[in-house]
Design goal:
There is one protein chain. By secondary structure, this protein is of the alpha/beta class. It is about 40% helix and about 15% strand. It has a single domain, classed as NAD(P)-binding Rossmann-like Domain (Rossmann fold, 3-Layer(aba) Sandwich). The strands form 4 sheets. Strands 2-1-3-4-5-10 form a 6-stranded parallel sheet, sandwiched between helices. The chain has a two-stranded parallel ribbon with strand order 6-9. Strand 1, helix 1 and strand 2 form a beta-alpha-beta unit. The protein starts with a strand and ends with a helix.
Length: about 280
């Protein structure tokens, strides 16, 4: 497979590139030094020159609170840029895999969100990512959108790294217990994205590791995996955060991988297994 990965220097993009190269794919790892995805002409030129079979778009502005203060940039990167990618894919006959987020939902559901549930983002970030979904899905059968949540990997900033740093600094650990999601690890997510690309699947998909927890519970699991005392973690409510976060988060961000399950794909691992692997990798 001839593959273009945007956001290739990021947390997820790094593992998508490594996994694809390990499988023998012909990969162009495109970070911002290769292409600015907000520049439509540059995107069109790159795809016309490289002519990939598939584009996996891992590029995004994921600073949720910063997006709240700069909606123009958020929509330029997370929505408008996907239009440029989709149009360029259409010209060269490439398949597009667009990565999205649980933040497209409002978090009021009483059960995990399925792919066909109504969206309702609470934040600029969520709204911009929903816009990106729509730009990708305009390609019809030539695009797949993959929503995921609470992404962690070896090559980027994430909750696992944050907690390990706080443990090292012997800082107090207090995390919210009223937001729930599914921690998802790039070592498991990258192969899913590449299989979706290989099979040229289309439409909406959810892809997370198994196991729904609150941030408080997740941090306890991280501390335990690092050999610490989980009872040292204190639960707080979102309302107790000081200072308050600018962007509203969905209280329930748990995704049901219904489409992939219906397609007969094997169930994903419980997140605690790759969590242990990541903690060990970061300790070396």
């Amino acid at each position: 497979m001839r593959l273009l990965v945007t956001g290739a220097a990021g947390q997820l993009g790094s593992d998508v590139v490594a996994t694809a190269e390990g499988a023998g794919d012909d990969v162009l790892a495109a970070d911002r030094s290769v292409v600015d995805i907000t520049d439509g002409d540059a995107v069109a030129e790159l795809l016309a020159t490289w002519r990939p079979d598939t584009v996996v778009n891992c590029a995004a502005w994921t600073a949720v609170d910063a997006c709240e203060g700069d909606p123009g940039r958020a929509h330029a990167v997370n929505s408008q840029a996907v239009r440029w990618l989709a149009e360029a894919c259409d010209r060269v006959g490439a398949h597009l895999v667009q990565v999205s987020t649980e933040y497209v939902f409002d978090g009021t559901s009483s059960r995990p969100y399925r792919e066909d549930d109504e969206t309702g983002p609470l934040s600029v970030y969520g709204s911009s990512k929903l816009g990106g979904e729509r730009q990708a899905l305009a390609l019809g059968p030539s695009a797949a959108v993959v929503r995921t949540s609470w992404v962690c990997g070896q090559h980027g900033s994430n909750m696992v790294r944050t907690v390990l740093r706080l443990l090292h600094e012997q800082r107090p650990l207090a995390f919210v217990d009223d937001q729930r999601g599914c921690p998802t690890f790039t070592t498991d997510l990258a192969p899913v994205l590449l299989r979706i690309a290989q099979e040229r699947r289309h439409g909406l998909h959810h892809a997370t590791n198994e196991g729904a927890v609150s941030w408080f519970e997740f941090v306890r699991d991280i501390v335990a995996a690092a050999g610490g005392d989980p009872s040292s973690v204190t639960p707080i409510s979102t309302a107790q955060l000081d200072p308050p976060r600018p962007a509203r988060r969905p209280a329930l961000g748990v995704l049901d991988n219904a489409v992939l399950r219906a397609a007969g794909w094997p169930p994903p691992r419980d997140f605690r297994e790759p969590l242990g692997e990541l903690v060990r990798a970061l300790a070396t």
